[in-house]
Amino acid sequence: MDQHLGEYLGVEADWSLDGDPVDTIEVISPHTEQPIARVVQAQPADVDAAVVAARAAVDQGPWPRLEPADRIAVVRRLAEVYARRHGEMAQLISAEIGAPISFAQRAQVGLPTMMMSAFCDLAETHPWHETRTGFFGSDVHIRKDPVGVVAAVVPWNMPQFLIVTKLVPALLAGCAVVLKPAPESPLDALLLAEMLREVGLPEGVVTVVPGDATVGAHLVGHPGVDKVSFTGSSAAGRAVAAAAAANLTKVSLELGGKSAAVILDDADPAAVAAGVRSASLSNSGQICNALTRILVPVTRQHEFVDALADRMNALVVGDPADPATELGPLVSRRQQQRVRDYIDLGQREGARLVCGGTDLPDGMDTGWYVRPTLFAGADNSMRIAREEIFGPVLTVIGYRDEDEAVAIANDSDYGLAGSVWTADPERGIGIAERVQTGTFGVNQGYTMDPFAPFGGIKDSGYGRELGREGLDGYLETKSIAVAATR
Asked: Which SUPFAM superfamilies match (predicted)?
């Protein structure tokens, strides 16, 4: 790592374990439970300095005044640098959050690489300027301008993906960004900062401020910020919205989920089990759009439960650095205990524990692991069916007919994602149109297609990322009416 990184960030960055710096973030391996790095935490004064620098970059700097094609060229160079350091980034993410290295390579880093190129493609065809003939006969010029200074706050579970889906469209729009990564995963953000410096962004356009919730609160409530883009829990999202409201700061929130997979009576159990495994248990279930409520017809419930249990029992749980590992540890001891508490709660509520449980996986005596756990015989009133667990825990709920399946799917405080599984895609689309959620998949989990908008409704937040809508989220629309000449 670049030992001069602190000069770029505006805060110090200590990558070694030598010495005992003050106010540091200690990064702990979820597999070994041992420290792997220490980073100096930003203070409120660092946040203030970052916002001042971003404000200057927006108000006087060259970045927002470049042609879109010039900004696109810089981001394409970033994508090239990012691709060269793909392996390094994947190893870093695997080490800091415990993601299996195969998943880190494919999704934690592979998806962001793809997103960079996809956003550039979108930006090349975006309607930055448009002229319309107004109702009164005069010309109306429509232009898209950068929203200004963006505070981007991301969680630890998919750190680079969530950073890139905020940072890249904001840069393409001409904004400046102050990025706060989660304290569990600051290292990948600092590596990205090195890459950003390499491509030659102007001063103040991007600053990374590693820190805890206190640092985040200071950032999102800062009067110099024009837009907050936040991903995290619904409870934290409410606090962010309240803090931003004091300054009438624009906000987009991508929050929690409790997504349903509606399994229709013509679906194949083996295909469903394979698809749900990928859409529900990747990253040890620590994904916001995970399918965690599995709705099955009561007439075929045993078939689907058995197929899911077989698939879950076959998962390879172990060292995230091992390419054979399919399920790694949870990110922290606190998260491990939270998931264990929900497993105990599910049994007390009367759900049947089909597989998994609170014991460590076989052969594991350290690490924040939880066995992949399946409940059956549950109903939608149970807390394990209503609250976001954020771990490898699935709950099967039976239904009598399609109307009841849709009613159960919609009986949730959340509305982020969902899916339907059927031999008849047209029948599946009919279900998709009735489920109240921002995104949905037919015979798959939601794919996070970079050309399609992603986001939720209800307690899952508001605003959209990805697609043209994601780029528009960092732009202001201005209308200029020109009187007709006489």
From this structure: ALDH-like
Count of all residues that appear for the chain in the document: 486
Q: Tokens 């995963």 belong to which residue?
A: 185
CA atoms of 418 and 420, how far apart (whole Å): 7
Q: What angle do CA 101, 102, 104 make, to 5 degrees?
A: 60
Assess whether pLDDT exceeds 90 at residue 2: no
| 136 — pLDDT class (breaks 50, 70, 90) | confident
Q: Are 151 and 222 in contact (CB under 8 A)?
A: yes
| Torsion sign across C-alpha atoms 123, 61, 191, 35 | negative
Residue range 18-46: mean pLDDT, rounded = 87
Residue 12 appears among annotated catalytic residues: no
125: tokens are: 């065809």
Residue located via tokens 């790592």: 1
pLDDT of residue 135: 86
Q: Please give the model's pTM, rounded to 2 decimal places.
A: 0.93
- Mean pLDDT over each residue of the chain, to the nearest integer: 94
* DSSP per-residue codes, 94-132: HHHH---HHHIIIIIIHHHHHHHHHHHHHHHT--SEEEE
3 state DSSP class of 447: coil
Instruction: Say if residues 301 and 378 touch (Cβ distance below 8 Å).
Output: no
Delineate the domains of the chain, giving CATH numbers in brackets: 5-255+460-479 (3.40.605.10), 259-450 (3.40.309.10)
Q: What is the C-alpha to C-alpha distance for residues 406 and 224, in angstroms, rounded to an integer? A: 44
Nearest to 237 by CA among 250, 258, 254: 254
Cβ-based neighbours of 86, under 8 Å, separated by 6 or more: 105, 109, 110, 113
Confidence check: pLDDT of 273 > 90: yes
Which range among 132-136, 220-224, 478-482 shows the weakest confidence by mean pLDDT?
A: 132-136
> pLDDT tens-digit profile of 47-90?
999 999 999 999 999 999 999 999 999 999 999 999 999 999 99
Catalytic residue among 184, 254, 303, 326: 254
Tell me how far apart the alpha carbons of residues 103 and 299 are, in angstroms, rounded to a whole number: 35
Q: What is d(CA 301, CA 323) in angstroms, rounded to the nearest whole number?
A: 34
